Amino acid sequence: MSGNVDETGGAGGASVAEEGAGVELGRVRQLWHLLEPLHAVLYYAPEAFEEAAALGYGIEERWPSYFPYRAAPLGAVGGGRVASAFYSFSPRMVDEHIKSAWEKASPDQVLAARERAVDRAYRAIFGDRVTSPELAEAAALARRAAEAVNTAGRQLAAANVDVAWPEAPHLQLWHAATILREHRGDGHLAALLVAGLDPVESLVSFAATGAASVERFESRGWSPEEWRAGRGRLIARGLVDEDGIATDAGRELRRQVEQHTDQLAAAPWQSLGPDAVARLADLLGEFWVAVLGSGLLPPETTLGIGKV
């Protein structure tokens, strides 16, 4: 996804979070780490593939359902709009999956299917805890943060904000996690643009830091020639060496990108306040463990969680 973003302005001076309600940037990043797996269940759970198959999408790999599931809040848009919003995917790959997506099912049908998928997946993963007071409290806190997002210039966050809130607390938790991760992701793209990293360069530069394997990043559909060309541009800027390893300058730029991303993601957590944020982090722990323990999510992703 897209993933995180940071802003180059973060290298000096106090961060937005540090100047605001006392929510540190480390806590902002922690909440992303805790919420991202709760959102990502949609792209890996067998229940999600079953719902996608019922709509007519292929399930031999995750991409045929990933693109319509994630893009549905935008409406029946074409590949160009989706490629712009998703950023790091090859436009060819996006177009391949989006071109016929809305012929199989309307965005409203896809939104209903993804809600059913999350409902079924969460019930399978969490069991009786899906109706626990702890989950309901976590959902209420996450919703407060999600309702505080500023969607100006953030197309995926804005689109998901326009989706009606579900009634069940566990579905509210997923919806809040989705709004917050897309809000963060939209900000990440802004940070990449400030850093002068185009879509393929954003992947090459992140792979160069060891955030994940090159093979994992190459799954986003760029050709070997495009990957080599992107690397060449980064070599010319002194950001990676001839072996594709990040230089000190390259690592510093990526650090700035991640810091800027955290800064741009901080406002919803500022609105919640440090005590409520700490409480939410505590509440999310058992559900984060349950998702990771389910074995549904891959051990390595392009987000680099735990690596940056």
Strand content: under 5%
Number of helices: 17
Shape: globular
Average pLDDT score: 90
Supply Rg: 19 Å
Termini gap: 16 Å
Whole-number count of domains:
1
The percent range for helix content is 55-70%
Largest sheet: none
Number of E strands? 0
Structural class: mainly alpha
Strand and helix order:
HHHHHHHHHHHHHHHHH
Quick rundown:
The protein is mostly helical. 64% of the residues lie in helices and 0% in strands.
Write up this protein.
This protein is mostly helical. The protein has one domain (8-293). 64% of the residues lie in helices and 0% in strands. The protein is built from 17 helices and no strands. It has helices spanning 16-19, 25-40, 46-55, 63-71, 79-86, 91-98, 101-104, 107-126, 133-146, 155-161, 169-194, 199-208, 214-218, 224-236, 248-264, 267-272, 274-293. The longest helix is centred in the middle third of the chain and has 26 residues, at 169-194. Residues 1-21 and 304-308 have low confidence and may be disordered.
